[in-house]
Amino acid sequence: MKNWLLVCLLAASLTSTASAREWFVAQVNPNVSDTADGSKEHPLRTITVAAQLAQPGDTVTVGAGIYHEWISPARGGNANAPIVYRSVPEHAAIVRGTDVFHAQWIPVPDAPGVFTSPLPQKAFIFGNPFVRPPEPTDKKKLKGWKPTRNAMVFFKDHVLSQVTTRQELMKTPDTWLASDDATQLLVHLEDNNAPAPGTIEITTRD
User: Fold this and answer.
1) Quick one: DSSP state of residue 137?
2) Sheet of 22-25: strands edge to edge?
3) What's the CA gap between 79 and 91, in Å, rounded?
């Protein structure tokens, strides 16, 4: 009986291994499409689609690039057949909860080098991360507290530093500030010019 059970378990294991497949995701491949078969020759465009297709025991191989996605796998693996996600080359695939900010930048009066644009409220999937946090009610915690937003701003893949006052923004290049009502983004770049189209990315999901 024990031998029969062992044979059954081994057969099940081999069947699971044999049915496992590798899904390929590659942004730069000319044949890329989220309706492709996910093979190396015809990879998927997004990790999101691969995560919906992958079954226990499968591997999702992601090519180099920055993937602007929020990934929620349709299923998980198990101890004997995990779903493996890997970057090839290693560390070359970056998943970032940001999107390119297509903005019309306007110079801010009396603030040389500072430009502003309305934030895209409809792009915020889980709420606006640029909203000002509430002040602590505990007076001890209020000392040294700053209204830091739960957001990031990138310029050409370089992280801009967040400041909390207009004075800091004016004095310090490569910084950003959100308006108190979280409707406007203000930036100050190193060259004091307005950002070129497609060079700014902002957090839209966290």
Assistant:
1) S
2) 22-25, 59-62, 84-87
3) 24
Quick check: helix, strand or coil at residue 18?
A: helix
With contact defined as beta carbons under 8 Å apart, do 95 and 47 qualify?
yes
Q: Which two tokens stand for residue 182?
A: 């979280």
- Cα separation, 127 vs 115, in Å, equals 24
Tokens of 141: 């915690």
**What single letter denotes the amino acid at residue 41?**
E
Rounded to whole angstroms, the Cα distance separating 185 from 119 reads 6
Q: Does the reported pTM lie above 0.85?
A: no
User: In the structure encoding, which two tokens stand for residue 23, read together?
Assistant: 């899904």
pLDDT tens sequence across 85-117: 999 999 999 998 899 999 999 999 999 999 999
Element (H, E) at 7: helix 2-19
